[in-house]
Specification:
Layout lengths: L4 E5 L5 E4 L10 E5 L5 E5 L5 H8 L13 H11 L7 H17 L6 H17 L6
Antiparallel strand pairs: 1-2, 2-3, 3-4
Helix pairs in contact: 3-4
């Protein structure tokens, strides 16, 4: 079974890592555990959860709290840590950090990337009580 590379713990049980599905140069995969015990996995580059699980040698059952799937949840916890609920604004900050890292690396941003960056900027500005033109 594969393990994640480039894992960064961001405090509060939040983890970011290089996505095992695409040629990731900066961590674009985020993993955490929801209050109900579900493991939440998201690749900001758009890789599907199914492809991420497949790359890690895991099935869907690894993401859901159920005594019948305890071993699978332990397996994913060993690969990803035991993350907790992230601050929604921290997710937006990570969108901007990843975009900045991609730009520094000379990677062009797609129209979808630029749209997501705009959403992140708007959400962060709104949290500060500002408006963005």
């Amino acid at each position: 079974m594969a393990t994640l590379e480039g894992v960064i713990e961001r405090g509060g049980g939040r983890y970011y890592a290089l996505c095992p599905v695409h040629a990731d140069r900066s961590p674009s995969l985020t993993v955490r555990t929801a209050e109900d015990g579900r493991v939440l996995v998201h690749c900001f580059a758009g890789c599907s959860v199914e492809s991420i699980l497949h790359a890690l040698g895991l099935g869907w059952e690894a993401l859901f709290p159920d005594e019948r799937t305890r071993d699978a949840r332990i397996a994913i916890a060993r690969r990803l840590g035991q993350p907790a609920e992230p601050d929604p604004l921290e997710v937006e900050r990570w969108v901007l950090r990843i975009a900045a890292a991609d730009l520094r690396a000379g990677k062009p941003l797609s129209a979808e990337d630029r749209a997501r960056i705009k959403v992140a900027r708007l959400r962060l500005a709104a949290a500060r009580g500002e408006t963005v033109a």
